[in-house]
Write a structure and sequence with these properties.
Oligomer: single chain
Number of strands: 0
Shape: globular
């Protein structure tokens, strides 16, 4: 019984760790997709939770029923035409680019806060990622089983400190905070679709290792609820610090600033760990697809993806990302609709 509960929590941790990333842990993603919409952003986060659970179940169900091995198989099943090929290519490009960005970010973080050469940060991230990746699915589960609880502890600690030391901790005050954007519903759908397609690269291979829909679905549901609670807390903390958060690349670092250097350092460690978690998830997803599509050994695929990502991390790829992120968000949204339609017809 305890083993089954532990397995469910591990699946939940992998789901959370795959989606969180450095963007959410730093507060930047929540700021852009939710906080700027004011108090209605809380409803947007709840919508995301519902979509995570519904589409997570559909992805798990289809993966187990059709014995899928990678996100490439899922795309081919749900969207077999031209759009599916475009989705597959853009997803692969996005995951590799994301991996490169994280390597660059790791180098920048090490250089900015420890005054070390950026290549040290890139080398450390690459080496540790390979060690974990070579453990295959076990490595993915192990790191998230440590990182996700650590993230939760830090965010909840920050929240508790705000409860005790912040005077305007009330929904009435939050409603008075000015919002900067409209169309919060579309932003919620775009954000959730974006994350769901990214997470399929991990969910689909997991169903091969754990071909039990009950465990997978329970883990995804638990992970969705946990992720929603974390997002709601981060969103509240950010709303309470408008407009100052807009001046920082890492908004949560400003939020933590009033509670001393120790909390800041803990947050920086968490951001690096979440970068690491996302790096492993991205390379894992693409390597599994290479193994399935081109019969390239999984371990060779991991090395190959890193070999491609390291040079890209040194290039000015701003224009590439400017195109890829919106394109990936839109394609993800269309793909999720296709998944739901396919599932309904399949039933």
């Amino acid at each position: 019984m305890l083993k089954k509960i532990g397995l469910t929590f591990q699946i939940a941790a992998v789901f959370i760790g795959t989606i969180v990333g450095a963007g959410l842990a730093s507060g930047q993603e929540i700021t852009q997709f939710f906080t700027t919409y004011g108090y209605k952003s809380f409803l947007g986060i709840i919508i995301c939770c519902i979509l995570y659970i519904v589409t997570g179940y559909i992805v798990a169900h289809l993966s187990i029923k059709y014995k899928l091995n990678s996100y490439n198989d899922l795309i081919a099943l749900v969207s077999p035409g031209f759009l599916g090929k475009v989705t597959d290519i853009v997803t692969g490009m996005f995951l590799i680019s994301s991996s490169a960005i994280i390597l660059a970010g790791s180098g920048a973080l090490i250089h900015q806060y420890f005054r070390l050469n950026k290549w040290i940060g890139i080398f450390v991230m690459s080496t540790i990622s390979l060690i974990v990746l070579f453990r295959d699915t076990k490595g993915l589960i192990e790191i998230n089983s440590v990182i996700v609880p650590t993230l939760t502890i830090v965010i909840v600690t920050l929240f508790i400190l705000y409860i005790f030391f912040y005077e305007n901790m009330s929904f009435a005050y939050v409603k008075t905070v000015p919002y900067h954007k409209n169309h919060w519903v579309f932003s919620s759908f775009l954000y959730s679709s974006f994350n769901i397609l990214s997470s399929t690269g991990v969910i689909v291979p997991l169903t091969k290792e754990i071909p039990n829909k009950k465990y997978i679905f329970t883990g995804i549901t638990l992970g969705s609820i946990g992720l929603t609670i974390l997002s709601l807390i981060i969103n509240l903390l950010l709303l309470l610090n408008i407009p100052y958060i807009f001046e920082y690349e890492i908004p949560l670092l400003y939020v933590a600033n009033r509670f001393g250097r120790l909390i800041q350092i803990m947050l920086l460690v968490i951001i690096w760990l979440e970068m690491f978690s996302t790096e492993v998830s991205d390379i894992f997803s693409v390597s599994k697809t290479l193994e399935q599509t081109f019969k390239i050994s999984y371990k060779v695929g991991c090395i190959l993806i890193l070999a491609i990502a390291i040079p890209i991390s040194q290039v000015g790829f701003v224009n590439l990302i400017t195109f890829l992120y919106p394109a990936f968000g839109l394609i993800s949204f269309i793909f999720i609709i296709q998944c739901i339609i396919f599932y309904i017809k399949d039933r």
